[in-house]
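Deliverable D5.2: sample structural annotation.
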Amino acid sequence: MSFSGTWKVDRSENYDKFMEQMGINVMKRKLAEHDNLKVTIEQTGDKFHIKESSTFRTKDIDFTLGVAFDYSLADGTEVSGTWEMEGDMLKGKFTRKDNNKVLTTTRALVGGELVQSYNYEGVDAKRIFKKQ
């Protein structure tokens, strides 16, 4: 299964509550709801190159499945963790550097859409992307 392609956010579920649980202030949350996030994924075996483009920033991320790496979320929160492939799903587990709490995320292809799910401290959210 390949996640390769360019994906643009189409809709979100419970994303504001998730960001609130993450400690993101109300102004940044309102802006994030309209970030027009586009994710370009290039997958070669167990290596990934991802380009995230939004209204606010563009960021390139390179990682290999199972190898820990550091990452800065859009709000500046620093995390460290890994992505693993579980069946047809990418599963990420990241630890915040500021409070050592865990953020989990998955990416799965569902009905031709890329569904990214998040969990932080008991709050779940989803962002659904359409292929461009």
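Annotation notes: The mean pLDDT is 95. Residues 80 and 88 are 23 Å apart (CA to CA).
The annotation will be released with the project's public dataset once the embargo ends.
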